[in-house]
Amino acid sequence: MPKFTKYDDLEKYLTMLFPEILGRSRQVESVIIMAMSQAVYDVVYGAFETEEYVRREHDGGLSDIQNMGITDFGINENGEAYVIFENLTEGQDTLKNKLITDTIVDGIKNNWKTRPGPWTEERDFIGEAARAIRENPTELLDAFKNALVENGFIIK
């Protein structure tokens, strides 16, 4: 493990390693998954009770943790680290084989082939998950620290 005497050198080194360390951390991913799954329940499923269709929930639905994960990480052209986390749930019926996150979050009515209903309204579960993490970041910060320690960093 290299040692640094200048903050700028440490920052450059971390910027290069950070996306890969976090992008491969199952603990970091798990914290975000749980926040998103809860947000789906609160914002999407909590918006209305349905009799029009059966919600898939944890069985292939929007709250199914199997449909969520870190899909990319790296450094952009500005030298900034990024980690992309996505909910890759596909629809069924009229939205079969189509990702439904944008349709749900933005309330894209044209994507629904059925008559309008509360299911066509905007329900921003991504914003809710981000808000929940920002309001209580301890679990995610601990996961970040653990990911760094697992990769040989000593955190004091």
How would you describe the overall organization of this protein?
- The chain has 156 residues and is mainly alpha-helical.
- The chain has one domain (7-144).
- The chain has five helices and two strands, in the order H-H-E-E-H-H-H.
- The protein has helices spanning 7-23, 26-44, 101-106, 125-135, 138-150; strands at residues 68-75, 81-87.
- The chain has a two-stranded antiparallel sheet with strand order 1-2.
- The model has no long low-confidence stretch (mean pLDDT 89).
- Main β-sheet description: 2 strands, antiparallel
**Beta-strand fraction estimate:** 5-15%
Q: Specify the overall morphology.
A: elongated
| Number of contiguous helices | 5
Rg over CA atoms, rounded to whole Å, is 19 Å
Could you estimate the helical fraction of the residues in percent? 40-55%
Order of helices and strands: HHEEHHH
SS-based class: mainly alpha
User: Runs with pLDDT <50, length 5+?
Assistant: none
Number of spatially distinct domains: 1
Widest β-sheet, arrangement of strands: 1-2
| Mean pLDDT value | 89
How many runs of DSSP E, i.e. beta strands?
2
Query: How many angstroms separate the termini?
Result: 16 Å
